[in-house]
């Protein structure tokens, strides 16, 4: 690998490493597993970078998807449930995102802080049942029917909540979402 | 299934929560439906942002080396792909910065445009054969104001060179005075602290002033001067 290539990866990591790490940690929980997920995720990103099309989405979304997939795969491979699901069994309210505290790292990136604020606020403004199904899907990797089983709710209810919640989030986050013409 | 029904799947698809059968069907549909692809993409961006909702955690410093090592093992990447990633990540990261800069530029541009417009109006008012000029001065002192009266458009451009702002609660008021008549107010003004100002005021219709004068009045101005003018200029010599 040429030096320039490695610099590019280093830059990718420096920009997004902490987000990827925090996301992986929120899903897998354990530190060694988190690091494995992060290394795998960047490895996959690197391998498939040629296919990444900036016109079809942001790097943030692309990396988040890779990370989530890797993290959920690892959790399943370990025969465990995602950290969020384990918590969900104990906690009935108050979103999962906040209590998943790892070592707090003050983020010096103001824009990312703003984004974080907006996302947290938007999530917080969702009706609790809607937020819950989204979190189970996102952090727990559960499908509609798995969520329905988990919550003992009708499948149709789960689908409706998830969709309504996602639409509200999309509205609330629209200033941060670059639209692409269909 | 009509288009609307399909679109219902987009959010769940982006979250990865469609059940396998639905997912396969929807993916097939996506191949031929640009509007569903756009829906999926916008929800995909939402899922990307959801990653920001987790509590920030600093990766251990050694992880960076491990990432680079893993990637090196994964594959030697063509430089073009690497460049694409850098371009893309800079693009994504610079996006919000660029957006806020754009807004700042737009504001600055609007301000500059407004200033330019007003300057152009002033220049247009000055460059006219109908313009009469008079200097206003306190007795025995250098002029501190000059008036340009565009008689064709009946507007007065007031320029102040060295006129301190009026005291608190006070304002300056410009008067047009025709001999034998009561002074007519042209308008009030107040220079900024540097004492320099360019203000355009309409000359009251039908007034053909012989003199112009400035008084110091309570804020808002007065119907008639309440003070002796401290600046006076005559139009007679020049008109």
Q: Could you explain how this protein is built, in words?
A:
Chain A is mainly α and 182 residues long. Chain A folds into 2 domains: 80 residues, Rna Polymerase Sigma Factor, Chain: A (Orthogonal Bundle), CATH 1.10.1740.10; 84 residues, Winged helix-like DNA-binding domain superfamily/Winged helix DNA-binding domain (Arc Repressor Mutant, subunit A). Chain A is 68% helix and 0% strand. Chain A is built from 8 helices and no strands. In chain A, α6 crosses α8 and α7 crosses α8. Chain A is globular, with a radius of gyration of 17 Å. Chain A starts with a helix and ends in a 10-residue tail after the last helix. About 9% of the residues of chain A have low confidence. With 239 residues, chain B is an alpha+beta fold. Chain B has 3 domains: 52 residues, Arc Repressor Mutant, subunit A (Orthogonal Bundle); 42 residues; 104 residues, Immunoglobulin-like, CATH 2.60.40. Chain B is 43% helix and 21% strand. Chain B contains 6 helices and 8 strands; from the N terminus they run ααααααββββββββ. In chain B, the strands form 2 sheets. Chain B has a 4-stranded antiparallel β-sheet with strand order 1-2-3-6, with helices on one face. Chain B has a 4-stranded antiparallel β-sheet with strand order 5-4-7-8, with no helix packed on it. In chain B, β4 and β5 form a beta hairpin. Chain B is elongated and about 95 Å long. The model of chain B has no long low-confidence stretch (mean pLDDT 83). The interface between A and B is large, with 92 and 66 residues.
List the helices and strands and how they pair.
The complex is a heterodimer of chains A (182) and B (239).
Chain A: H1 3-28, H2 31-48, H3 59-77, H4 83-90, H5 110-125, H6 128-138, H7 144-151, H8 155-172
Chain B: H1 3-7, H2 10-15, H3 20-32, H4 34-50, H5 62-74, H6 79-126, E1 131-136, E2 145-150, E3 155-160, E4 170-177, E5 184-189, E6 197-202, E7 211-218, E8 231-234
């Amino acid at each position: 690998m040429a030096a320039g290539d490695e610099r590019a990866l280093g830059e990718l990591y420096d920009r997004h490493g902490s987000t990827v790490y925090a996301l992986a940690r929120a899903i897998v929980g354990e530190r060694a597993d988190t690091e494995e997920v992060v290394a795998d995720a960047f490895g996959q990103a690197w391998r498939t970078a040629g296919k990444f099309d900036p016109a079809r989405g942001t790097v943030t979304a692309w990396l988040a998807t890779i990370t989530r997939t890797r993290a959920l795969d690892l959790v399943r491979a370990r025969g465990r449930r995602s950290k969020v699901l384990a918590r969900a069994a104990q906690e009935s309210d108050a979103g999962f995102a906040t209590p998943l505290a790892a070592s707090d790292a003050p983020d010096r990136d103001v824009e990312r802080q703003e984004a974080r604020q907006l996302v947290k606020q938007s999530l917080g403004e969702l009706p609790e049942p809607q937020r819950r199904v989204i979190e189970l899907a996102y952090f727990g990797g559960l499908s509609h029917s798995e969520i329905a089983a988990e919550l003992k709710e009708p499948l149709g209810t789960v689908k409706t909540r998830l969709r309504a919640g996602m639409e509200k989030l999309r509205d609330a986050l629209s200033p941060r979402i670059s639209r692409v013409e269909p | 299934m009509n288009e609307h029904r399909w679109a219902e799947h987009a959010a769940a698809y982006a979250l990865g929560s469609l059940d396998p059968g639905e997912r396969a069907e929807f993916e097939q549909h996506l191949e031929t439906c640009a509007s569903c692809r756009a829906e999926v993409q916008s929800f995909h961006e939402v899922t990307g942002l959801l990653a920001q909702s987790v509590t920030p955690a600093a990766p251990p410093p050694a992880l960076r080396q491990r990432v680079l090592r893993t990637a090196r093992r994964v594959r030697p990447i063509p430089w073009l792909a690497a460049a694409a990633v850098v371009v893309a990540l800079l693009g994504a990261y610079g996006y919000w910065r660029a957006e806020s800069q754009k807004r700042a530029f737009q504001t600055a541009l609007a301000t500059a445009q407004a200033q330019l417009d007003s300057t152009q109006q002033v220049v247009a008012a000055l460059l006219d054969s109908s313009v009469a000029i008079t200097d206003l001065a306190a007795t025995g002192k250098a002029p501190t104001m000059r008036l340009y009266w565009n008689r064709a458009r009946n507007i007065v451009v007031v320029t102040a060179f060295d006129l301190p702002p009026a005291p608190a609660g006070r304002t300056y008021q410009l008067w047009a005075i025709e001999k034998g008549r009561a002074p007519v107010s042209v308008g009030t003004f107040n220079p900024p602290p540097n004492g320099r100002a360019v203000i355009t005021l309409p000359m009251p219709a039908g007034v053909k002033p012989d003199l112009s004068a400035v008084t110091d009045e309570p804020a808002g101005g007065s119907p008639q001067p309440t003070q002796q003018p401290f600046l006076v200029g005559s139009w007679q010599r020049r008109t």
